Amino acid sequence: MHQDEAARRRAQRSFESAIIAAAFAERRAEPRAVRAGIFARAAAPAFAQAERRSGQAVQDGRALELAILEEQSTLAEAQAAIEAERVELASLSTRRRTAQAALTRDAEAATRRARTLAAEARSLRELAQRAAAANRRPGAGSGGAGVIPAGWTAPAEGRIVAAYGARATADAPAAQGARVRTRAGAQVVAPAAGEVAYSGPFRSYGQVLILNLDGGYALVLTGMDSVRVRVGDSVRAGQPIGEMPVSDMTAPELYVEVRRDGRPIDPGRWLTARGLTAESGVRAG
C-alpha cells in the first residue's frame, strides 16, 4: 500500500515537472519567434528593394548588351560603306587617269595634224580649206549657201575697215573676208557652237584660229595676240576664244572670213546686223 502511494506521488511529481518544463520551454521559444518575426518584417522591404535592384540590373545588362550589338552592327555597316566608297573612288581615279591620258593623246594627235596642215598649206585660203575638210561638222545650215545664220553673234566689237572682195592693190587677189578694227586688248568670242580645227601661228599671219561651226560653216580669224583654245576643243556661242593685241600706236584689226562647203561668204551683212558699222567709203554687205 505504502509502495503504491509512493509510486503515485512520484508519477504526480514527474507529471508536474513535465508541465512546468513545457511551460518554461514555451516561454523561452516565444521570445525567439517574436524576435524572428520582427526581424523578418523589418528586413522585408530591404529584401524586396534588393530584389528589384537585382531585376533592374539584369534588365539594364540585357539592354546594354543589345545596344552594344546594335552599335557593332552599325559600325560594321559604316566600315562596309567606307570600303565601298574607297573602292569606288579608286575606280573613279583610274577611269579619270585613263580618260585624261586619252584626252592628252587626242590633243597631241590633233596638234600634230594641225602642224601638218600648216606645213602643207601654202596660203591662208588653203589652210582654211584643208582644216575645214579634215574637221568637217555634219548638218545643214539654217539658210542658203551664201547666208550666215541670223543667230550668230559678232566675234568682236569694232568698225569694218575693209570689206569682203576688197583688193589691197589693183593686181592683188580679192579679200575673202572682212577686216574689223577693234579696241586694244578686245575680247574675241565664238559666234556659234563648234570645234577648233586649227589654232596657232601660220606664216606671216601670226595667230590663226579656224573654227568648224554647226551647219557646215568654217570661221577663219587672224590678227589676235593670244588664243585661248586648242585644236579639238569644243566651243559654245559667245565663249571667249582670244584677245586682240594691246598697242598705244595703232588699233588692232581682226580678219574675219566665213566659209561653207569650201566657198567664202561675205560676212558684211552679218556683221552690220550685229551692230558693227563700216568706215566711210567701205561698203559692207
Describe the structure.
There is one protein chain. The chain has 285 residues and is α+β, with helices and mostly antiparallel strands. The protein folds into 2 domains: 120 residues; 155 residues, Glucose Permease (Domain IIA). It contains 3 helices and 12 strands; from the N terminus they run H-H-E-E-E-E-E-E-E-E-E-E-E-H-E. Strands 1, 2, 4, 5, 6, 8, 10, 11 and 12 form a 9-stranded mixed sheet that branches. Strands 3-9-7 form a 3-stranded antiparallel sheet, with no helix packed on it. A hairpin with a 3-residue loop joins strand 5 and strand 6. The chain is rod-shaped, with a radius of gyration of 53 Å. 26% of the residues are buried.
Q: How many separate structural domains?
A: 2
Query: Given the C-alpha coordinates, what overall shape results?
Result: rod-shaped
Helical fraction: 40-55%
| Overall strand count | 12
Under CATH at level 1, the class of the largest domain stands as Mainly Beta
What would CATH call the architecture of the largest domain?
A: Distorted Sandwich
Helix/strand class: alpha+beta
Quote the beta fraction: 15-25%
Note poorly predicted spans: none
Q: Do you know the CATH topology of the largest domain?
A: Glucose Permease (Domain IIA)
Largest beta-sheet characterization = 9 strands, mixed
Tell me the radius of gyration.
53 Å
DSSP summary: helix tally: 3
What would the average pLDDT be, to the nearest integer? 81
Order of helices and strands: HHEEEEEEEEEEEHE
